[in-house]
Amino acid sequence: MAQQKLRKQETLAMRKRLIGQSCRLFYSDDPVKIVRARGQYLFDENNQRYLDCISNVHHVGHCHPKITEAAAAQMDLLNTNSRFLHDNIVLYADRLAASLPEKLCVFYFVNSGSEANDLALRLAQQFTQHQDVIVVDHAYHGHLMSLIDISPYKFRKLAGQKEWVHVAPLPDTYRGIYRETHPNPGQAYADTVKDLIEDVHKKGRKICAFFAESLPSVGGQIILPQGYSAKVAEYVHSAGGVYVADEVQTGFGRVGSHFWAFQLQGEDFCPDIVTLGKPMGNGHPLACVATTKEIADAFTANGVEYFNTFGGNPVSCAIGLAVLDVIKEEDLRGNAMTVGAHLKDLLTKLQTRHQMIGDVRGVGLFVGLELVKDREQRTPATECAALVVKRLKEEDRIFVSTDGPWESVLKFKPPLCFSMEDAELVAQCIDRILTAAATENINLPNNTCINCKREQK
Amino acid sequence: MAQQKLRKQETLAMRKRLIGQSCRLFYSDDPVKIVRARGQYLFDENNQRYLDCISNVHHVGHCHPKITEAAAAQMDLLNTNSRFLHDNIVLYADRLAASLPEKLCVFYFVNSGSEANDLALRLAQQFTQHQDVIVVDHAYHGHLMSLIDISPYKFRKLAGQKEWVHVAPLPDTYRGIYRETHPNPGQAYADTVKDLIEDVHKKGRKICAFFAESLPSVGGQIILPQGYSAKVAEYVHSAGGVYVADEVQTGFGRVGSHFWAFQLQGEDFCPDIVTLGKPMGNGHPLACVATTKEIADAFTANGVEYFNTFGGNPVSCAIGLAVLDVIKEEDLRGNAMTVGAHLKDLLTKLQTRHQMIGDVRGVGLFVGLELVKDREQRTPATECAALVVKRLKEEDRIFVSTDGPWESVLKFKPPLCFSMEDAELVAQCIDRILTAAATENINLPNNTCINCKREQK
After folding, report:
1. For residue A424, is pLDDT > 60?
2. B333-355 mean pLDDT
3. Rounded CA gap, B434 and B356, in Å?
4. Which CATH class is domain A65-329?
5. CA nearest B303 in A: which residue?
6. Beta strands in A186-305 (DSSP E)
7. Which of B14, B55, B97 sits opposite A94 (nearest CB)?
8. Nearest to B184 by CA among B197, B192, B360, B369
9. CB of A365 closer than 8 Å to CB of A258
10. pLDDT (tens digit, 9 = 90+) per residue, A169-217?
């Protein structure tokens, strides 16, 4: 197959003409054309290699031959819908069940994390017969209309907040209302949810769900403080609601020590609904909702069929099974733990030399490096973060991007085959760029949160 | 690859345990396990062959080798997201643009018809800054929360009708309020939309969109009367709204004479937004929204990115391109026209012998056969239709299913490689079964519409 059919300028011109401009390009000033990929490396039309620190979807590595093989073999055999019996869907569900707490034993297969979160919301509403949803600040749960409603990251820029949606503070112990010096930030942040529930009840409304990523991503690669989820679940259950853990970005061993990021919150915590997505099919459109028998039964009891045309088809499930196999065979969870720890360690060492590094946080290969203008005020260094991203691309051919309300957090969510050497290269390059930036004395005005227009002082 | 890993009873038991029961099986009393497929044929675990009259998704035939080849080659090369430049997405959009009227020139790629319809609704609301939507009765536009709201087929069984949703009569000239004897049913049905718009305006509300399948499917394989869409578009445009044509079930040459079903309404009609889905990837999760530059620009102007993780990836687009190639190379549109006409002709001949056949309608390989208890009252023969479906499966190994508010319409939406012999076999088998049914004197009570609980007299 020809790797390139059009010259880059022609591709770009056609893209501008034919694809909605709301679909943005990375590095929009100088976008990159990628024609092939392998493992953690992407190659442009001139065969220049780029190290990929951001493709969390391509979980076991780009174009893994075992995934391609499984897909092609099943495509050649059968790809019907799930109204016929097939082994793949049940074998896959069985494997997922084995990775989850026992009570999460019923599955619905869909095509995207967004479809999964939309269905999770329907399940929660049907089960509780309540409407109100609590989300954490800056959260993003998907591009569908129902999910924009529960995503402060989006609704603040669009239609605004619905009366049935309530926003809890982001449990960010670096920048949030309770910080690393607080004796028990998990309890303190959980109590903000408790207070919200009380406010909701005072309005005569009822709690349907608490909906949160197990590690808030767009929020800035946040690690939830210990004890938070169990306490929130307790409060939400008391109010007759359910806890929905959005694992679309964080599942399938990325955190290394556990297969699911919600498990970082301890064995006494189990969500009522978990949504899975991005890495699940290594790029193939595949996602899922896992829930309890009680919630699934309540959904069945409405008497209405749920049919998802492509969801759970034999090809999607064959790919899903192959992804699970590769994670295990190549011990990618182990690799995420070792390499992630090394990367965090290297970045933490950089922090001793660079005043601009305000915080380094992460678990496994989910790592954030927060840049600040001054360590005391923790003023977000948005422009500096953008500069690092630009220079890493141009000078080092490394793809990194930013997250967080002020786009001041460099995020690392690479394919899990990321190596020790990759981690070392990234740290060296950031070191060099931050050294240069300090020399150039980058000094910029105060920032405004791009999500909620609040100013950071 | 082993075609079967579990015995059928074991698959069924695991399915009951692990998959949400809202995800229903075909022939739930005696479900079928399918292990392989080719063209228009499906094979069960005992290598029994079934003729497939219902898999409209597997448009160019099950497991077409050219589709598998294109998918595998691209999966081996690259499968990133659309934030990088790539030739496939622009070449594919360009090919789709060439098949559509010139003004439909901007594309958004997504993973399912539901995602496409949700985005269409967002586009329409953003462009018009209005909220209210008119849909036709019994319509189904997808499984997402936003789409249940605009699908009478679903919302009547679930949350009920929202104040911003308005239901126009289904333009069904066999069973609707204006029938085949009306001098101008297209105008008459369009005027019902005009009346609705006036009602909406009287309430101080504003029309965002008229949203309809180009051939209402769940509604009972309905062929819109000539002139309907152009008139509706005129009324909707006057009210400041847009016309959304849902081509998820009907696009890509199924109707034979045209590539898109909305084109059946004549050259003076062009929708403002068209959604594509099911057949687009021949089973691969791929869908799309096509719209005008003005609508796309209004969406861009909100300043918010639209990112769909898997939408428009190089593998999905390679598959989409291969599907277009096969449709052309194998002249599947021509085949849909010829074989569809033959099937309709054969079924129409059966009508002369079987009083139970109330109506035969269709274009290309989108055909409906409506069964009635008596031709004058047109009482739906729901149980008889179910009997035909059951016997076709058990006695003839033919998969057909029913649609329409009373599930009294046998629907034929086979892969486009369906042959003249297949059409003849189906007609013969239906002939035999209806003859037997008449002898057995199937006489059943009045029916209730499964969607809206109205009784048919």
Report:
1. yes
2. 98
3. 8
4. alpha beta
5. A22
6. 207-213, 242-246, 273-276, 287-291
7. B14
8. B192
9. no
10. 999 999 999 999 999 999 999 999 999 999 999 999 999 999 999 999 9
Kindly report the backbone phi and psi dihedral angles of residue A200, in degrees, each rounded to the nearest multiple of 5, phi listed first: -60, -45
Which burial class, exposed, middle or buried, applies to A421 when counting CB atoms under 10 A from its CB (0-12, 13-18, 19+)?
Answer: exposed
Q: Does B160 touch chain A (CB under 8 A)?
A: no
Contact residues, chain B, for A312 at CB < 8 Å: 19, 23
**Within this chain, domains A8-60+331-439 and A65-329 share the same CATH topology:** no
Amino acid at B444: L
Q: What is the DSSP letter of A52?
A: E
Q: Which neighbouring-strand residues pair with A318?
A: none
Among B280, B279, B250, smallest CA distance to B92 is for B280
- C-beta of residue A256 within 8 angstroms of C-beta of residue A365: yes
Identify whether the C-beta of residue B49 lies closer than 8 Å to the C-beta of residue B428.
Answer: no
How deeply is B109 buried, as exposed, middle or buried, from its count of CB atoms within 10 A (0-12, 13-18, 19+)? buried
DSSP for residue A271? -
Residue whose C-alpha is closest to residue A376's, from A170, A183, A137, A174: A174
Q: What is the pLDDT of residue A439?
A: 83
Strand order, beta sheet including B366-371 = B357-363, B366-371, B409-412, B401-403
Q: Are A112 and A144 in contact (CB under 8 A)?
A: no
- Pairing mode, if any, of strands B287-291 and A409-412? unpaired
Q: Tell me whether strands A398-399 and A49-52 are parallel, antiparallel or unpaired.
A: parallel
The 10s digit of each residue's pLDDT in B219-228 is 999 999 999 9
Residues of B in contact with A286 (CB under 8 A): 285
Interface-testing mutation among A46, A62, A79, A217, with chain B (most B C-beta atoms within 10 A):
A79
A-B CB pairs within 8 A amount to 339
CA–CA separation, B406 and A187 (whole Å): 55
DSSP reduced 3-state for B103: coil
**What span, in angstroms and rounded, lies between the C-alpha atoms of B389 and B399?**
7
The span from the CA of B363 to the CA of B221, in Å, is 10
User: How long a stretch of residues is chain A?
Assistant: 457
What are the distances in angstroms from CA B347 to CA A304, B54, B220, B338, B443? 32, 17, 16, 14, 22
CB-closest option in B18, B36, B83 to A90:
B18
Q: How far is CA B431 from CA A50, B78, B351, B391, B435, in A?
A: 64, 51, 9, 12, 6
Q: What is the value of ipTM here, to two decimals?
A: 0.97
Percent of chain A past pLDDT 90, that is, above it, reads 94
How many other C-beta atoms can be found within 10 angstroms of the C-beta atom of residue A352? 8
Main-chain phi, psi angles of A50, to 5 degrees:
-120, 140
Whether residue A72 and residue B71 make contact (CB cut-off 8 A), yes or no, is yes
Give the residue extent of every domain in chain B: 8-60+331-439, 65-329
Q: Is B106 helix (H, G, I), strand (E, B) or coil?
A: strand
Cα B48-B53-B56 angle, rounded to 5 deg: 120
Exposed/middle/buried for residue B276 (C-beta within 10 Å: 0-12, 13-18, 19+): buried
B221 in Cβ contact with B403 (< 8 Å): yes
Task: With beta carbons less than 8 A apart as the criterion, state whether A55 and A415 touch.
Answer: yes
CATH 3.90.1150.10 fits domain A8-60+331-439: yes
Measured CA to CA, the distance from residue B428 to residue B347 in angstroms comes to 9
Report the candidate in B169, B19, B48, B449 with the shortest Cα–Cα distance to residue A308: B19
Per-residue pLDDT, averaged over B68-81, amounts to: 97
Helix (H) and strand (E) counts in chain A: 13, 15
* A positions 186-225 inside 8 Å of B (CB): none
High-pLDDT (> 90) share of chain B, %: 94
Comparing C-alpha atoms, which of B304, B303, B301, B295 is closest to residue B275? Answer: B295
